[in-house]
Amino acid sequence: MGAQMFQAEMRRNDEDRRIMTLRHLHDKLDSIPFANGAAFDSRDNQHSICLENTRVGLLADIVAWAQCDTEKEIFWLKGVAGTGKSTITRTLATQLHAQEFSIGSFFFSRGEGDRGNGDLLVMSVAKQLARQNPDAFESLCSAYEQGITDKSLSFQWEELIYKPLSQVKERIGRLVLIIDALDDCMESDITEIIKIFTRGERQLFRVFITSRPETIIRSNFGQTDKTIFCDLALDQIPDALVKHDIRIYIEHHMREITDSRGLGGQWPSDNQISELMRRADRLFIYAATVCRYLKGAFNPKGSLERILDINVPDSSEKGLDKVYSQILENYLSCGNEEELEEQIDLFQRIVGTILILFEPLSIHPLAALLGISEDQVDSTLRPLYSVLDLPNDSESPIKIFHQSFRDFLIHPSGCHIAHTRLRSPTQFWMDEQAKHVVLLSKCLQTMTGQQNALRQNICDISSDGMPRTDIDDKTIQVHIPTQLQYSCRYWAHHLEQTKRPLVDNDEIHMFLKAHLLHWLEVMSILELISECIRSITRLLPAVNDKESRISELLHDTQRFLLGNCEIASSAPLQVYASSLIFAPMFSAVRRIFRHKIPQYIEQLPGVEENWSASLQILEGHTGKVNSVAFSPDGNRLSSASDDGTVILWDMTTGTPLQTIQNYEVKGDDEGFGAGNMRANRGFLTGGVIKLRDAVTGELLHEIEGDNYAVRSVAFSPDSRRLMSGGFDKTINLWDIITVSFSPDNGQDEESRVRPASCSSDSTIKTWDAATKTPLKTFTDHNGRVSSVSFSPDCRQLVSAGWDNTIRLWDAGTGELLKTLSGHNMVRSVAFSPDGRLLASGALDCIVMLWDLRTGLPLKTFRGHNGGIYSVAFSPDGKQLASGSMDHAIRVWDIAKVSSAKTRDGHTNYVTHLAIAPDMRKVVSVAYYDTEIRIWDTTTGNLLTVLQSHRYGIRSVSFSLDSHWLALCTLDNAVEVWDMTQNSLAKEMGNDDSGPVDAIAFSHNSQWLASASKDRTIKLWDTATYTPQKQFKSGQTDTITCIAFSHDGQQLATGSADKTIILWDINTHEQIQEIQCDEGCPSSISLGPDGKLLASSMYGDTSIWDATTGAPLQTCSVHDSYTPLKLSTDGAFLESSHGILSIIPTGDRGESDQAPRQIAVKDKWVVYGQERLVWLPLDYRPCQWVVHGGLLCLGTRSGRVVVMRFAL
């Protein structure tokens, strides 16, 4: 019985876990973003399907294609506008769904927001498939992760569709992906979408695509393997079949009209139907528009007669224009002239806006945007039911029924209506550019008006560090209504369409000066911060005067965004905090919006005066960046790292597009082909080279070499061949087109490839690839050669070596032309595209730019905190990318002056910081540096530099009266400095007792205790710095730390023998011994009453009873705390990182609660648990100390930053 109960309980637990898992997956499914109205069965897409007995043969052929196992997995249906492609697509989707196909569909529609581009294509399809197919539900939902929306479409496709479905392909049945109106998608996305669908390993689903026969689509399919797709043009279908279907369509809708209106007799006549068929020709939209118009006409019979009385045009497209003209003529009311003018004015304002919106709006935001009533919108649009898609509810967007009506209204010669009541036949014509001018003005008014306008902290969130993900959708909709969202997202798009120049103090300049940061905040909340960069980029060409203030502001905003894209995307209010306080002093954005900085930041950090040459810092790798390379168009950058990833970056926004993971990436070379967008990566995996498409990240080919690992790869200049070098000391040449070994190396001199190689034996060789014999050997380096590169014209060769030199050679003769010096351990070199400049990166963390005519350095770029392993020029030669051991990629503007040494900082990373007890000064010391820098805490400025006489400094300590500063040096000596005179008072450690290992000042600053190598304890009078007392510790190993009691009568010493001994200073007798079994104490502190003792070791802090030696409390901390003072009750320990609570939470009373404090945690300055200020990479500390609201940071670049916060 017990076993049965146990099994039953286990089953219940399993079921509970299964239910929780399903709930979690359903929550993930709900969180997947999708494009509203894109699915075939959505309410936005609920137009009619093909009537019975129409398109029968065509649909049967397509359904048969979907059901069969033919290799042609793609069906492309093409046709001009109005031929019924979307109706066919909806019908196909409906029929296949009824046959239990799983359907993923996306109906593109230009000007309808997310349906006008491919951003949400993959996620919308994934969400549909997960809802339809139970077998695919779990794998699809599990694959979705936050942040994938920022990745490339190819990455999304691979992770959200292909991989999950491949796992369950035996159970998911038949899948069809249906893409309608691909031509309505943004051109930049069309190529990537087609490449996704035409990649090699499909077999999981069939893809049906419709579009107009636009050039970009024809071109992409023209480059696709003809065995995987079939295409059909609707104009190839016989006229008789098309006219038969149009007749059925017209007769069906005419019967509906006669039935609903009670029209008797033979209406319409056969002749009238035949005439409509003739005029429609092959355009279903003609028949559809006429029928929609007649359904709502007051007198359908009379309206039909008027349409048929129109002169017969030369083409069906012109005939459709005539129908539109008739509809607009009938639209005119019977009122007086003033009413007629008002009607036309409202038509122009409302319909004109609908025509040019980049995303359709429902009636309320449309009316709010235009500043008119909803009743005016409704009364203006209702008579246009035949040409507009007017929803029955107030939440759905208002749209044009067919694109041809928009084309008619904006074409000057098309929209020509001769009506006696019109002042001009072109009164309905829409001047598209003028409409954008008006709508731009409306957007600006919406953003700057009195209600629901832009303001700081628009969503009233509680903290400046609150993540964007913590702001719920309801809050966003309440505070940022749809019309404001639209205005923020698209005002720059409308401005671009106006073609107007931007000048100082115009409405755009005034808007930016008042609301730039408000706009950035809203765009961050809407998760569109990268769009801000694109918007500013759109505006720059509109400025003719490059010396104007608006030009300065736009360029500065571009730099501001590039430097803050990461934090602006994740924490909206940081645009007023981190982004402003770390901007350069002379930044236009900082200057204009300084008053927006939060008041709790009382003292701002010291920053440079101007933007440095570092345009962007790309963070995403977790290991050394071995290689960087630009795409040929300069729009993308690839980087490869020791962390096993290759990342593809968008260079406009600095955001990662795709991450290729799980590679054993240990090679040093990666590159983009010169003639295409194809990237390669060589890595140590059994001699395999992988070629990927740099647009989609798609794996194109795997080149199998021998069993030796590939170390380096490079493209030929024409991108047709690939050279690989391996650990077997061989070089191979591969034909990329055939993916085969290519020993012939081309048939003519121009196409022949002459590889160059470098190796650890100090030699460089050029080779005849066909015979694999060396042509020239270069032997002038004195050490390993780490990098070699040809000039663009292949006449020169540059090499970099571990002998700290760069050498320029004549590639033909082998003559050494120049030797460049100035680096330590050069790892990478690259020619500029014009061959005039050379970039080099070295292990000294510096990137240098050289003038090859003179051999002299032009510029030096500093900023990396680790050695440089790769450098690459952008194709236009204006930018330079570098990859480093610090895991970051920096993109440099080579037109900028050299980035100077860090502002008054050290030349190496900061190892020690100490705030004087009086909080007036802070001391900093750097790695292997003999300089002690003293900073003013009230200004953050450097006061003075003290020069130590010893070799390196390993610790610093102030006396409690801030008078004395003691330094322990790496050679175990001690220097004591008088901080009132900035002079050296005493140097200790050279007597018979040996070097000094530990020091401590007494609480009254009268004594300095030192512990020497031989474990001799000395007490020094700080007035004379002569030893007054001396005794020898009985501990058996080095004394690591020392501390006075508050009354100065006792001394505690911690030793490497894992003991702490408490001594009587006067008698030199041992009072207590404490065994530290966990390890060697690094610091100790005695409580005010002498009853408690605190010790730190390996991240643990222990509290001991000093009278008995018994342990009282141990707590783990994540930081290396240096105890300074125990509270009277032993509840808190004050350290250089703030106040640490040492009583378990459950044992604390109200008086025991640790006060909130300033600290640094995970890239943030925090106050307790509240995030205040995000720290950019250049300001993230390797050392930091805090005292109250005073925070001092020491960075790896040597920068010292002082900030003060109001608590």
From TrEMBL:
Q: Which SUPFAM superfamilies match?
A: P-loop containing nucleoside triphosphate hydrolases, WD40 repeat-like
PANTHER family linked: TRANSCRIPTION INITIATION FACTOR TFIID (PTHR19879), TRANSCRIPTION INITIATION FACTOR TFIID SUBUNIT 5 (PTHR19879:SF9)
Please name the Pfam families in this protein's record: NPHP3_N, WD40
The record's SMART domains line, in alphabetical order, gives: WD40 (SM00320)
Keyword Transferase attributed: no
Indicate yes or no for the key word Glycosyltransferase: no
Q: Where are the WD repeats?
A: 618-659, 703-736, 778-819, 826-860, 861-902, 903-945, 946-987, 989-1030, 1032-1073
Keywords per UniProt = Repeat, WD repeat
Where do the Nephrocystin 3-like N-terminal domain residues begin and end?
63-212
Q: Out of the domains of life, which is the source?
A: Eukaryota
What is this protein identified as?
WD40 repeat-like protein
